[in-house]
Design brief:
This protein is α+β, with helices and mostly antiparallel strands. The protein contains 15 helices and seven strands. Helix content is 47%, strand content 12%. Strands 1, 2, 3, 4 and 5 form a five-stranded antiparallel β-sheet that branches. A hairpin with a 5-residue loop joins strand 3 and strand 4. Helix 3 (26-47) runs antiparallel to helix 8 (183-207). The longest helix is centred in the middle third of the chain and has 25 residues, at 183-207.
Length: 376
């Protein structure tokens, strides 16, 4: 019992089935991915405000450092010390007094905390040159604040650390195009997000789909034996289908009788050889199962949902049994959507519902099917 419970709790993933499902729905994955990319671009244009960057670059120069009463002489060729000073300069840059002086110099109405959030800085390729970048929604404002810092910062550094200086290498200019958002990047992100979501939805649908499609699904789901497996009979006949046996739905929603050519593809003597042999195998196994019975044999076919092939199987099984020169009566018990008469091309026939309602006799509802020894 514990072993059976363990087997039920196990989730088996068929990678081949997953791949086939993804390939069959490749069109849907492409549509969802492109749609997400388009929506991302539209959202970026409508809701994301463009921002501009303007930067100034400084060179760290050191000959003699003095920290309080302690003086240290440094050779001008010691570039590593200059690189280490970059971190100190960045700290001085982000102090309140430096930022307030830059705001006062430019005449802006921002607080120093707001300006601090707009600034980013760092060394350029691990050299003694560092860059200060100001980001703003206004390109002119970004340029003004960056140049204000370029004016204030060297003076502040000179008053704090003796023997060093920061010289402006490149002043800030008004940016000609926004630095963000990147439409190309956002488009790729949207496309990738749509791809992941669509693939994930298909995979989850396949994992939790309990629909039985193959013989392996049957054997894994229950212990009942498989009598026969009928191949797809519609593949060789375009336009035919299991539901309606190739008939076409009219504008009123009813099915017109199937043409003779479409009926031959799925029922009667003109089905494919593989399907014919499968039904003969089913007939043989049913005969063995009835070997010990002397009464009239009744075979019932049912399914959980409509369109799963019970009428198709019933018609072909009845035809196969009639080939044994025994009388076979095929009873259509579908009260809501009887389809056997339509499949066999029979018109204006009385149904089982008519018999139950007292509108037809037993003799009237049993008619010849057009196939020897087979009645409907």
């Amino acid at each position: 019992m514990e072993e059976n419970k363990k087997n039920r709790d196990e989730l088996e993933i068929d990678l081949g089935r997953m791949l086939r499902a993804l390939l069959s729905r490749a069109w849907m994955i492409a549509i969802v991915s492109v749609l997400c990319a388009v929506l991302t671009v539209i959202g970026t244009i409508l809701f994301v405000t463009p921002k501009y960057e303007s930067a100034a670059m400084f060179y760290v120069n050191n000959n003699n450092l003095s920290f309080g009463d302690t003086s240290v002489s440094i050779d001008s060729g010691d570039l590593s010390t200059s690189r280490n000073l970059v971190d100190s300069y960045i700290v001085i840059l982000n102090t309140r007094e430096t930022l307030v002086d830059a705001i006062d110099y430019e005449g802006e109405s921002r607080t120093y905390k707001q300006l601090k959030e707009m600034i980013s800085s760092g060394a350029v390729n691990e050299t003694e040159i560092f860059r200060v970048t100001v980001t703003s929604e206004d390109p002119q404002e970004a340029e003004r604040l960056a140049n204000a810092i370029a004016y204030i910062l060297p003076k502040r550094i000179g008053t704090i650390i003796d023997g060093t200086s920061a010289k402006v290498v490149d002043s800030a200019i008004v940016p000609s195009k926004p630095s963000s958002p990147s439409y190309t990047k956002n488009t790729l992100i949207g496309f990738l997000l749509g791809f992941i979501l669509s693939v994930g939805a298909i995979v989850l649908n396949e994992i939790f789909d309990i629909t039985i499609r193959t013989e392996e699904d049957v054997t894994q789901t229950c212990k009942h034996p498989i009598l026969a497996a009928v191949p797809d009979m519609t593949a060789a006949s375009k336009g035919s289908s299991y539901y309606g046996y190739g008939s076409k739905r009219s504008k009123k929603g009813k099915y017109a009788p199937a043409t003779q050519q479409s009926k031959r593809a799925v029922i009667g003597p003109n089905i494919s050889f593989a399907a014919s042999e499968a039904y003969k195998l089913l007939r043989t196994k049913l005969q063995f199962s009835f070997a010990d019975e002397n009464d009239c044999h009744v075979i019932g076919l049912s399914s959980a949902l409509s369109g799963e092939g019970k009428s198709l199987t019933a018609v072909n099984l009845a035809y196969t049994l009639s080939q044994l020169n025994k009388k076979v009566l095929l009873v259509d018990c579908d009260m809501y959507n009887p389809s056997v008469a339509r499949a066999l091309g029979l018109e204006n026939v009385k149904t089982l519902q008519d018999y139950q309602d007292g509108e037809a006799t037993q003799t009237e509802i049993i008619v010849k099917s057009g196939i020897r020894h087979m009645y409907v």
